[in-house]
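Q: What would this chain look like folded?
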Amino acid sequence: MIVKTELKKKTMDDMINRLRKLGTKKALRAPAAAVRAGSSVIIKATRPAVPVDTGTLKKAIGQKVKTKRIYATSVFGIRNRKVTTGSGKIKNAVRYAHLVEFGKRGEQARPFMRTSYDASAIAARRAVIAKMISIFRTEANTVRKVG
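A: My prediction, written as structure tokens:
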């Protein structure tokens, strides 16, 4: 289960052009930091919504930020990770997360990923934009002091 979020290309292109003008290393890493901030908002909204039996599924929710030059993509979902429960069983949340989210024969669905994403998508976009603005301001101030 992977959910992907994107900003409009025109908005991102404008931000990237501004980053290139600044030219500092921190400014060029800004998209990854901003995308990570947005994903964190969604993950914080998702964890409380997870139905808990052993807690393995809740612990397995995570994110991975991929960068290519100055473009960044964040993928968040259930990580492929084996966890030993309190009773000594080894569980991998990837194997049953979809059954919890969508249900199975005889069991009702208990959605947590999609509902949390829908509820926090706007807040995540705001967090991305706020992080980018914050980085722009600090880098612009740095450039002014140096120049």
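The mean pLDDT is 81.
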